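The aim of this short unit is practical: by the end, you should be able to scan a pair of folded records and say something sensible about each. We start with the first protein, listed as its amino acid sequence and then its structure tokens.
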Amino acid sequence: MAGFRTVRRILAGGAALAAAGWVLRDVPAELGVRPLTSGPDRADRIRRSRQFRDGTFVNPMPETTTMMTAPPVSLLGEMVKDRELRRPPGPIPVRVPPTGAPSPTGLGAIWYGHASTLVEIEGRRVLFDPVWSDRPSPSQLVGPRRHHPLPVALNRLPQVDAVVISHDHYDHLDLNTVRGLTRTQKAPFLVPLGIGAHLERWGVPAYRIIELDWDEEAHVAGLRFVATAARHFSGRTLTRNDTLWGSWVVAGAAKRVFYAGDSGYFEGYKGIGAAHGPFDLTLMPIGAYNASWPDIHMDPEEAVNANLDLGGKLMLPVHWATFTLAVHPWAEPVDRLWREAKARDVKIVVPRPGEAVDTAAAPPVDGWWKTLG
């Protein structure tokens, strides 16, 4: 009997190791590619970019911190206390997205969680920063876990006209999602300069990749896409800023959308608003902020400032609720946003994951997150 138990333990241990090996098999690919080594044409474009100096992409606005290389001791202390406050107090309500055709003249959005959002603009569909994995990490064995189910399976998404990526961090660019979209969709990927190297390694055909520098534009499916500035950084390893990051303008014949990606607040929003706005809809990040990294993530009040700079008519908050990426309480970003929006007469909409929003009839904020638990 003891020998049987020993054999069973050995088999169980072998199965666990095999399972771990299966999960870890994609880690080298997850880390991405150094774009300067991915071909002379891409390398030449990168070196000619005004954002590229001394071997890396840089922010044109002053930086005040280097937090990401050495978190302060005080922050490490915060991370080990009040962990329950950084999780939702109960199940997050998820809606099943509608499947009908988009309005040929209207503008709507479906927020799937975190930054992943489908915008329906004048009969076209644009998918921003899709992440369908359970963890935004190079391995699904570690990292922050999703707080709510996905509103729709990746292979049940409607056909989209464009997939737009803001930068190459794991919570915005996901290998498994990219591979799934490559199989199930036909749309091109519009990405900041250098990210095409990652996509090519992951199996995206070159003809489906459109790489843009800031202030460059492309026309896809009757829409105009403009890569615009952001105050952030990039990198999937300890090496930083090999690829460019950015925000995006999507313009139809009459409707305009702005997606901020990840960014600290900066004066450049006024210039983007003057050049491309006003915007019928802005998708603005409100979560994962901290006083230690104001250069890379806005707080909710700064997001309202940016929306006003841009001339945003309706603001939809993203980059909150789905993953815990900072030490603030789970609901604090949306609570602060709601308070600031009311104080400054800014129109916002806060949908549940999967809930469709028509910008022409946006529902009033109902505080659904306050009823959890």
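Turning to the second protein, read its sequence before its tokens, just as you did above.
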Amino acid sequence: MAVGRLRRVAVLVLEGAKPLDVGIPAQVFTTRASMPYEVRVCGPAPGLVTGGDGLSYHVADGLDALAWADIVFIPGYRFPDRDDPPPVVVDALIAAHGRGARLAAISTGAFALAATGLLDGRRATTHWHYTRALAEKHPTVRVDENVLFVDEGSVLTSAGAASGIDLCLHILRGDLGVAASNHAARRLVAAPHRSGGQAQYVPRSVPEPLGERFAVTREWALHRLDKPLTLETLAQHAAVSPRTFSRRFVQDTGYTPMQWVLRARIDMARELLERSQRSVEQIAADVGLGTAANLRLHFRRILGTTPSEYRRTFARGNQVA
């Protein structure tokens, strides 16, 4: 399958960088024939960068990679609340953003991004352990401690390391569509899509059998999106009352059950639009939305576009395998 325009990704390794935070974007966007990305791992200067957790990194590129990149990832690092990155790094990030690059922070990389001033007045998140410190150090940033990631367009932030995967897959979905993102998720053996609004952690303890049962119910529902799904149907499958199911579901996912079902149906419609030639009317029936008008209504409300426009953007011929 043809590959679209090559996108350039820089992963900026700062002193004390966390290994998982560095590895996630490097692996998700790794340079390969089937992915329209080129990745460079860089540091404040070429050479050895002392990382965290006993690892160091020998990077081939310095800050010139930020002037080259379309997307710059800033992995988390140790002691982010103590000192800002070197001024030369801050200036390079500001210049990259001014040139049109997207800046995406993983975990405590949000502190480096906040040091640029580009998060002032915007929503952002970081690892839950550091949300208060981020809010205190940068009081004009609207810190949200209860989400996995925040997309503010040209600046994006995520919580702990695992949510860095969610952020990377979210970026892939926006760049290449659902099919490519799901393909990458399967390669990583990761959840295809966790909403940015999902909680970083459950506020109260949930008995393990209940959590497992809800995961099974979500999987069960995903295979029945073409059939009627109500709150009562889902709660019956989970063997709890509708009220309990609804309350716990919001805590687990950040959505009400029916919001989640609707978005799952829209995602299924997106993949069918990308991978098949079925009409909008047929796809609406396939995903349980009934009519083409209903699909168009929810598609525009959630994604800000129409099914036909989406298909033109993410047609199979422009996608990766």
